[in-house]
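Input (MFS transporter):
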Amino acid sequence: MTPPPASLNAALTAPINLVTSRPPWNQTFSSLKIRNYRVFASANLLAVTAVWMQRVAQDWMVLELSGSVTAVGITVFMQFIPSLVLMPLGGILADRYSKRMILMISQGAAGILAAIMAVLALTGHLEVWHIYVIAFVLGLVVVADQPARQVFVNELVGPRQLRNAISLNSSIFQMGGMIGPAVSGILITAVGGGWAFATNALACSVTVISLVLIKPGELVKSPPMKHSKGQLMEGVRYVLRKPTIFWPAVMAGFVSVFGMSLAVLMAAYANNVFDSGPGGYGLLNTLVALGALCGALASTRVATLRLRAVIGAAGAYGAVLIVASLAPSMVSFGAVMVVAGFTVLLFLTSANQLVQMSTNVLIRGRVMSLYIMVLIGGQALGGPLMGWLAEHFGVQSAMLVAGGVPVLAAITIGIILARRGQLTIKTNFRSIRRPLFIVPKVGA
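Output:
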């Protein structure tokens, strides 16, 4: 890794875990031994389940009200465009102020927005433009919430347990992704999507209560950043100087724009291709989350963080989406979605770990805000784009593009890294597991 800027204390940079053996199985959930993290994680499971419920209900209600896949993409755009434009400001807030207080305020605001959606839906007054406006305001809330949430994990568990906690957070998110879409699909069919919004409003309240219950004295706090000029550009220069941050962010850009609008494409598959309705859409989301949960748990077993593994996981995800574009039935498509969830979570979790572990704690809020800006903001562009492609060229063609672009990006970045790192590709066709592998060049 390149050294941090001179203005930062290099001693505060958490070292990358360089052990060569996998952690024992009894360490898979080691970060849950910390009381504050247990409280946070328990509430987080309920919260992410409710968020997934709201997300599925929101997408399906837009599709029902408008009859347009493009409208679903516009909803994604409205929710994520604030992240594309304003996320670095959220990073500055996270470095300057209490992450716990920021999360309490942001979750309270998210709960109010969910309650407004619930009232409009349950009274029969919800219109597409209402969803657009509330999605945009929720996007503003995410600008403050996400950088603080990412950095707060380090305060909860400390640098030694950070990698494990990141993996478990991904596991929790995907457990919610397994439960939420299925429950939301049942609710939409039985009583309407308004109750999914009401559930999310209640879950946000529980999250605020959990943050109140966290003991401040047990947090591993870093000193707050003082106000000065050029702090945002300091974060940008830091990202550009560190390959273990820059290249995962570049790869995340391609994946987020093209590959992470999967919800938009699955809505089109459920509605237009397989005619499976909201229950089928919820099932597809659950299958993706099932694979993603397995991927998140698998990431806790990885011994060493490697940049080439991060890029390889992104390329594998793209390849799986290409296969999905050829799936002839709901059953085969659903099976491929499980694998898609597994590969995308391996990429997202390993990239997040590598970026955080490579970043000095004094600048981590700004760095993570830039990374999240690429990851979430890219979806603001990708949602309408993939919806438009699906509507005008067919959902199978859109899925082919969603997978093909990340594959090409991964190959290109891999070639660049190979040349800069003096690496070479070796072949061993006698091995089924590793017919191709990368090794250092002789004399490098």
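The radius of gyration is 21 Å.
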